[in-house]
Design a protein that fits this description.
It is a single chain. The protein has 538 residues and is of the alpha/beta class. It folds into four domains: 169 residues, 3-Layer(aba) Sandwich (Rossmann fold), CATH 3.40.50.300; 62 residues, Orthogonal Bundle (Helicase, Ruva Protein, domain 3), CATH 1.10.8; 101 residues, Zinc Finger, Delta Prime, domain 3, CATH 1.20.272; 106 residues, GMP Synthetase, Chain A, domain 3, CATH 3.30.300.150. It is built from 22 helices and ten strands. Strand 2, helix 5 and strand 3 form a beta-alpha-beta unit. The chain is elongated, with a radius of gyration of 37 Å.
Amino acid sequence: MSYQVLARKLRPATFDALVGQEHVVRALTHALDHGRLHHAYLFTGTRGVGKTTIARVLAKCLNCEQGVSSRPCGTCSVCREVAENRFIDLIEVDAASRTRVDDTRDLLENAQYLPTRGRYKVYLVDEVHMLSGPSFNALLKTLEEPPAHVVFLLATTDPKKIPATVLSRCLQFQLKNLAPERIARYLAEVLEGERIVHEPSALDLIATAARGSMRDALSLTDQAIAFGQGAVRAADVADMLGLVGRDAVSGLIDALAARDVPRLLALAAELAERSADFEDVLGELIAALHRMAVNQALGAAAASSGPLDPEVVQLYYQIALLGLRDLPIAPDPRLGFEMTLLRMLAFAPDEAGTAVPAARPAGQPAAPSRAQPAAPSSARPAAPSSPQSTATARPARPDGASGVASPSAPAAGTRDRDAWFELVAGLEVSGVARMLAEHSVLTEADDRVYRLRLDDAHDTLLADGPVATLERAIGARLGKPVRLDIEVGTVGAETPAARMDRERRERQRVAEEALATDQTVQQLLNEFGGRIEGVSPV
């Protein structure tokens, strides 16, 4: 067979040809050039990042006929034999198939003898973590005090399974996963050298699917060349990998923005007909939401920011992450995917909210309170950020001429106070911001400004941070930006906190009276000589 796959054909023969592992190459190059060699090296990392390749290049550097250096000649008999996997003093062992202690002992029996041809006898043990406990014990003594002509090169994808006694006797190098951009650039260079037509977007798909492994990327490139009949195109790669394009993800986002449930379910059915991997689809949706959030944070143009509001993007991103986590335990991947989309719509902000009615002007009767529809979330203007948006604390004037109604006769009528109590009860705030709202009364309100009076016994609650939080919560509740103007003074009307306390005391009184007049309870107390220690209303 004359054809050689790219992963074997392009295997680096020198450190200079190695891609993406500069930190390991730098350390080994310095050690080889200055004669600071260790007797045992451990290379760790995921599959296809260059562990065995580095070990073979290192064996070539140690035994090159031109001398020990970081740049083997590549032309001498030793270099050629190492490259062709027939160098007698390079003993490669697959630990996954030789896990018994007898195999390890047989391997180490010949370590005491001098090399046959080379300068060093190199033991390359791949997937060393697969060795059994007794095998590690058999290896340990030789590893601790090896002959001067022996070098151990160990490679593993799971260093946590290697005993600490073995790790402490090795120089450990952690090989990194390659970035998709780095893989795509290398693949472009390879395909240009091979004179193969390719699309950059296709190489991006392959680099992402390789998940940091250069060998996997080259294998996928071979497969893409065969699938595309001598060319590497994005559409062919997507079909080959079973991926969904950005058009499908954009369709899902548009349907979410329009709250079009039939369209969402139709898109899910279409993906199922194409045998799409719903885990990959959710991953692409998460990546698209991430791009939208970044563009919105950077103030990008509306076209690149997407059709969703920033807070909705954050919500959908979190729900998609949870859906991706729960997808393996769903009865069916399609059902889990559809439920994730429906959950996004179920928890999306409502399109309508309840507005607090404005206080009636002096001399006019109070108008009935009614709910007002809020503006759509996509059309909400940004909350004002000028210094005027902060609350102003000013002492109440004893004559009641503070620009709002007198504390003894607040402008807000009973209906307005009830609406303020309902608004405060529905706010999604806590801590100081909630206490600030509960200890204030509404004195006047118009379309954009709500004027509140804070009980002077709680004036320490007034601060810029809680006021800003309360402004955002009220604006989200009403569906429009709101500015709060808060003054500190004597509050003659009942605050939400006072009402809740009064209602709590009333429930307690009613509960105690109910028990005091209940014949069954009184009969039990008389018969058993008991008494009621406390009453908690349910």
